[in-house]
Amino acid sequence: MILKKSKEILREHILCNHCLGRQFGKISTSTNQRRGEVIRNLLRCIYPDLNNNLDLQKPCFICGDIFERSDSVITKINPEFEFNSFHLGTKIPEDIIRKEEMLKENFGLEYQENLKQELNRELGKQIGDIIGKEFKREKEDVTILLHPYDSKVEYLINPIFVYGRYNKLIRGIPQTKWLCRKCKGKGCSRCNRTGKMYDESVEELISPLFVEAAKGNDSSFHGAGREDIDVLMLGNGRPFVLEIKSPKIREIDLKKLETEVNAINEGKVFISGLTFVEKELVEKVKNTHLKKIYRAEISICLADEEKKKIEEFFNDREIYQETPNRVIHRRADKTRIRKVYKVLTSKENCTSLEIHCDGGLYIKELISGDEERTNPSIAEVLGKNINCVLLDVISIEEKV
User: Which of these, 31, 61, 95, 159, has the minimum number of CB atoms within 10 Å of its CB?
Assistant: First the structure.
């Protein structure tokens, strides 16, 4: 079958050994070049009338003899940034891709490997030997993108990810940069030309030093949920992953950066537990509902019987919450089911509650009822109008 197909192809087209062998690349583990040599030699013996197309006197119909000219682009690889591993990509002109597809269709080639795959594999080996870095198919530090037909090189530097926890020690700042609702970040009279609703955010207090140390071009801040602007984040801190984009330096000193960030932001933000992580942790941090403990000050003083009633009622109690009125303009309107595990009252303070619950539960609405959008609520259980006047997160589950 291979010889018959090869004979039909070579009667019409001149192919180099790489391209000839590649038409049957998925049949055996030999290199395409070696497979092409064997096929050609066998055809010379069996079909001497094919000699004109077997002699390789003209450029290859498909690749134009790119494998003989690949050194010209490989010599241009000179990255000026840190990396330990790389993956290779190649940019192939559309007309060459169409030739391959035409050949596959016209000759019924079922086991063809495309030119891009072979170039990536073969040039990847050569480049790895030259630059002394590990060639990887996934989780590489950088993708080297070659344009072999234009002798150009591009570098796609993958981000680094740093996990940690943060404490927010002052009220009045959001977790992430909050663009002005009116101008969407362009700058206007409402935001005093800053483009932001708030001058500072946890993200903006933490990220710049990391981006500078890594010589990155940007960053993204991924938190395990978020606290309201007027809520403190105390205790063991909220998990986050900082994504630093296009870093030229990957081995940054996390302990030093932790110390510097904490010194600059003393009394505002504190970070701890920094470690490098893989990209997969981002989604896990964002989508895992970690159990939390809140301390809430409410608008009424609770009598002893009311304290007892709250503690008894909110014991492993499921809560049904529609999206709160205060955030429905920016969140999907849906019903969430979360659990309150216990509510502790204070003997010394008649307005204080300690609430142990699932992540994703809106505590202010658990207290007020939010016009019956949260059921049951503390206000409903007591039959009183109650609001949350002060709220702090005092603990978040350790395991992410």
Answer: 95
Write out pLDDT tens, residues 2-55.
999 998 998 889 899 999 999 999 887 889 999 999 998 898 888 777 666 666
Q: How far apart are CA 204 and CA 212, in angstroms?
A: 13
Ranges of CATH 3.30.70.3190 domains, the chain: 292-396
Residues 6+ apart with CB under 8 A from 306: 382
Give the CATH fold of the 292-396 domain.
Answer: Alpha-Beta Plaits (3.30.70)
Extended strands (E) in 14-65? none
Mean pLDDT for 293-313 is: 97
Cα radius of gyration rounded to whole Å, the chain: 32
Cβ neighbours of residue 215 closer than 8 Å, sequence gap 6 or more: 81, 247, 248, 249
> Coil, strand, or helix at residue 347?
coil
Would strands 292-298 and 142-147 be described as parallel, antiparallel, or unpaired?
A: unpaired
- State the span(s) of the chain assigned CATH 3.30.70.2510: 160-287
CATH topology of domain 160-287: Alpha-Beta Plaits (3.30.70)
Q: For 99-111, give one letter per residue: b (16+ CB within 10 A) or e.
A: bbeebeeebebee
Q: Is 363 helix (H, G, I), strand (E, B) or coil?
A: helix
Q: Is 222 helix (H, G, I), strand (E, B) or coil?
A: strand
Annotate 286-313 with three-state secondary structure: HHCCCCEEEEEEECCCCCHHHHHHHHHH
- pTM of structure: 0.87
**Closest to 292 in 3D by CA, of 234, 357, 337:** 357
Residues marked active site are found at 228
Q: Which residue has the tokens 């002005």?
A: 180
102 φ, ψ to 5°?
Answer: -65, -45
